[in-house]
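# nightly structure sweep
# worker-07 picked up a monomer target from the shared queue
# config: single-sequence mode, recycle default, output format = structure tokens
# input follows
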Amino acid sequence: MSSSPGVKLREHVDMMYISIETAIALASVLGNVLVVLVSSILSLLAIAIDRYLRVKIPTRYSTIVTQKRAWVAVCLCWILSFLTGLVPMIGWNNHSAHGNFSSSSDIVCKFTTVMSMDYMVYFNFFGWVVVPLTIMIALYGEIFRVIRQQLNRRAEATSDGDRYYQKELNLAKSLALVVFLFALCWLPLHIMNCINFFCPECYIPKFAAYAGIFMSHVNSALNPMVYAFRIKRFRITLIQITRRCMLCKPAEPTLCPNSTLALTEKIDGNL
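# output follows
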């Protein structure tokens, strides 16, 4: 069997992606939107770093990105997410602000009344959205540059290296689309928060605010669909889950169950 640079079995990386999406969906159900936001951005940043290492140092990738380190990265993402998302509950809020209580001394159940806008703008948006997004844009820009450079060098030759970089290019496009959808869904709400904070007298229609909130919650549902339509291995898994769990039909076998290597190579070649 011919060996491409850095082409190894990547079940641990696939499991990391699946774990990230499952955990984000669980956090969405639990309802802490701040934890969901930070976990989403950190997960996308971790994936961008993973893709960057895979195209920048393909021959050493499998020794650097091990299963243990992948799970450590996932755990760190969620620890940081919970710590930053729970900050308002331990003091950085408007609990003691005047006007936050009704005549019956109950807290007014309104996000912008309870939450401190300096936390939402400076800490949450500038610190945990703008900075990671900027890093991801730079990483994906470098990823596309390296891949294009490698493909141009091999334009007149056919080799496993071409197949490897073409596969990485397709995957990078899919993940860049996920980052774009994240920005598209979350930035409107944060921009409105900035307007409320820096320009209190400015009026934002309720419809626009509700639309921004809706878009931010829809983001977690978009990612699995992008993966399913753009990445074949996720599409196959989604079809099998649908057949088994929703249609109550047995999953159709794709390849010989004993041929794990053949399955990986076939999927990699069709990406």
